# Entry
Amino acid sequence: MMLKQWLYVFFACMVSIGTTRAQLVIEITSGADQLLPIAVVPFGYNGVDALPEDIAQVVEDDLARSGLFQPVPRANMLSMPSKEEDVFYRDWRLLKSDYVVIGNINKLPNGQYRIGFELLNVLSQKPVQKHASIDVNARNFRDAAHYISDKVYELLTGSRGAFSTRILYVTAEGDKRSPLFKLQVADADGHRPQVVVESKEPILSPSWSMDGRNIAYVMFRNRRPSIFIQELATGKRQQVAQFRGLNGAPAWSPDGKKLALVLSKDNNPEIYTLDIATQKLERMTNHYAIDTEPSWEPDGKGIVFTSDRGGNPQIYRLDTRSKRVERVTFEGELNTRARMTPDGRYLVTVQKNDGNYHVALQDMNTGRVQTLTETYLDESPSIAPNGSMVMYATTDRGKGILAVVSVDGLVKYRLPSAEGDVREPSWSPYFK
Amino acid sequence: MSVNKLGKFAVIGLSAAWIVGCSTTASDTDSSTVAEDAAAMEQAEADAANADQAYGAGEGDAVTSVIVDDVAAQQAEVDPLADVQVVFYFDFDKSIVRPESREALAKHAEFLVANPDARIVLEGHADERGTREYNMALGERRAKAISRYLTIQGVAASQIETVSFGEEVPVAFGSDNNAWQLNRRVEVRYE
# Structure
């Protein structure tokens, strides 16, 4: 029952507009050593018609992409049980699989599908997750699969999965000299992309509200930038900033009430906060240097931002109450566009070293810095809500693509797109 | 007036209409896909109407057509600037006006001082390196450097608007010094 309620809420948040476009496909380019072997058995089905998605395959892909699991290939499976009583644990021990996910799908008289699943521990021969089920429509099969992946991930790793989250990103398609810009939303695995806004003028800096219902972005109109807030489900949007000069880098506060943004209306780029309900602007920085790319700390007490007040761009922290500013990054030729992990432990930046731009991770406790990526022109890092992965934009053979790296740097995969230049990923929060 | 002349006017009228059509299409192409339903569409229109007053004028079709005609007429008269450079280049991560830009900028300044009703937009751009919002700030810094150069020569600040496109609108493609150089620029656009 709890499961059902959760799903209904989730589906209510979903947008169902736009057409299916060229999809992003996952390729794992490197992985960690210690992987947990798990078998995701194809789910049984009581019907004869074709199902919209192979749920077990989606779950298997999710788990593999996390870099923590080693799925058992289907071809090696000695049996394909869909009920616990049909499971011969010895078969799975032979395959050195520690865990088995089984499930079955039943078509209901109302046209929906009831998807049941169980997670079994091969060594103890006991269920980790007893049989549970969710009812979905045909178009929500992938949601059901991501839900199961989240459950399995959480039960086996102890931390919350982020498979049911989504991403925003911008594509530039068509003629390079006058491309069509599209702001798109897709599942975190790149599937089911939908166009949210399109324009002949640039769109950039998409950002999520903390409940995942609203987005903010910068869009040019008549050759000037404005900041918009848009409700994802309805498309209703509101222009919240169109001052002379810069209107950029919107970032939602953790309590959802404010937007941090960059304006140059008072001459040079400064960080402001905008109270969304009252439309009241408050200037947060005051310096003749460039101050930009604000991002809130998880507790909302501070804003990290990029400033070249020290000569070259580095990350600074602003206390939102006292407005005191202190420098945070010291390693690298420059550091820009910081994002903090949800636990506040790490700061992710775009760091320049020897002329190359890479995503770097700074431990806020020890100050230790680690470079996470090594591709060309890596930028726009965005952290998964469980803090496990960082999605970023990079360039491959002259084309913008999205890629993901784990926070420990061990797992990397890419999401190549068939269409256009892909950039500026923004990972959603959990959908409440 | 001969029939022939009338015909010419018709052609001019049509092409003007075509230009207007193009410009309005360009400004109206941004659309929420979700905005297919009437309510959202109205909202989008309301947004456009609520535009900051500094920019609101160009939104309506009628106004746009007048502006386009005026610009066309003005450009016909304003031959003094016909051959003057309108794109000015910058060094990497720098916003210093280069010495070779000065002569052409002086001509723009001269024209703007002589024509106090003329308005320009300085559109600043950056190359692809560095983050997008930082490049927005950098593009603006470059546009402001040109703006300062013009105001020092007597151009009224009210005649100049600076806008940055960051790295979003490159003119050269490829990841090499040549492309980057061509993209680090400020374009002068007469309104």
Q: What stands out?
A: Chain A is about 10% helix and 45% strand.
